[in-house]
Amino acid sequence: IDYSLHAGITDWNDNIKTEMNTLVEEGITSFKMHMDRKEGCMSDDGMLFQALEETRKNGALIMVHAENAFVLELLIARYRPQTKTLGAWAHALSRPCFIEYEAIQRAITWAEVTKGLLYIVHVSTGEGVEVIKQGKKRGVNVWAETCPQYLLLTDEVYKRKDGHLYACCPPIRTKHDKERLWEGIIKGEIQVIATDSCAFTKKQKDAWEGDFTKIPYGLPGAELRIPTMWSAFRKRKISMNKFVSLVATNPAKLFGLYPQKGTVEMGSDADIVIFDPKKKVTVDWRDLVSKCDWTPYQGMELTGYPVITILRGEVIAKDGKFVGKVGRGRFLRRNSELATQTARKLPILIGR
């Protein structure tokens, strides 16, 4: 497949600023920063502020994982002794909704002050959507994505015997949050559905040995993003146009790939997924090509499934089998100026 990359900012100094601008010139126009880790790759407010300042000049996009590291660390320490009785449910309790929406609010504040370009990854809370909505009303350059697990599941999964398999960050939330996310999609407050796919096998997940802080956090998701979301959109009677904008067109525009990608028109790459809208599939991890030996959507009944995938006019997958040429994928150099122009003009499709 054709591909591009996000860069990760783990520190901030004059050299990083130079490296950031060099990467933008080389076609890497998005940079991920973490607000949730006190060690390793955490970005404090000063780093985030300076990075956002730089995007005002170079047109790049700062992607933020928004969780408050300091309160999070406090709550993890508080619930860790209770893991034996709470199990994986302790993971959800240690990362309540305010851990996310406070961090989103702070990131939006810095984007507002600096006039930088901000993208909130994997939004999971209803309050987070509301904060983003208010920021956009004030004219802040902020966009948001959510993921299938937040739209399809609820935090009840953590009470299951195998609840540790579902541990991801942010965690899966309540039914209330799920419905507010769907409302955000319908109202145009969320622009992208991504996956944050991070697959661990059962053996790797089981290594937690009853301590929720040792669970490898992440879920497999890329392979089923399109069919699970299409089935969900269909059940909620949300249009195909809305679906396509969230999974293809908007991401291409925000990340500087449009109109080469994300649309079917003269001059664009002929990247097409052909769907059988009537094909019924019951999800079983054994039928997937991923090496991960489980899926969070096991047993889910889907209507509509991809049957052919075309890359630049050439069929590369058919009926679940790869039929393309290995090595045919290209690195995509992205255009920050183009991304800024198209992102700011991103049409908000309100309604179903």
From TrEMBL:
Query: What would be an example GO MF term here?
Result: hydrolase activity, acting on carbon-nitrogen (but not peptide) bonds, in cyclic amides
Q: So which cofactors does this thing need?
A: Zn(2+)
Q: What's one GO-annotated cellular component? A: cytosol
Residue ranges occupied by any Amidohydrolase-related domain in the UniProt entry = 33-312
One Pfam family name from the record? Amidohydro_1
Please give the Gene3D superfamilies that the UniProt record associates with this protein. Metal-dependent hydrolases (3.20.20.140), Urease, subunit C, domain 1 (2.30.40.10)
Family assignment from sequence similarity: Belongs to the metallo-dependent hydrolases superfamily. Hydantoinase/dihydropyrimidinase family.
Q: What is this protein called?
A: Dihydropyrimidinase
- Which species? Candidatus Hakubella thermalkaliphila
